[in-house]
Here is the input.
Amino acid sequence: MPVRRITDIKEDDDEFEIIDAGAGWVKKHFGDISKASVGKQVAVGGSTGWASGYLFGKVGKAAAGALGGSLLLITIANHQGLITIHWGKVEKNMKKARRKLEKDADRVVPMILQEVKEFVTEHAFLAGAFAGGFLLGLAT
Here is the structure.
């Protein structure tokens, strides 16, 4: 399919080209990691684990700070009389959400754990290196 420029596209055109930038790059540079050498699996797993752990730690700290700060402001506003919190409704909604979460978790969690178990057993070096890198990234 020839590449069309923006100036060639008319208003009544409904043909689009979707470009997948992520998957092609990964396959081009790494191929099938599970068939690569152990060293390459450990290097890829460790580096991606470290990057994921590092970002998880930074984003987690920011999210915890934002959540804690907003809860503190809501509590202060409630004590100052600026807002009114209906604790009965809050408790009712929390119980309802908890029941729904427990019901969904009983159904979904075993499936996720089974998929993780299969992946780890098939890609032991990659998964082990990722886990180690993730913990190092969290500590950084």
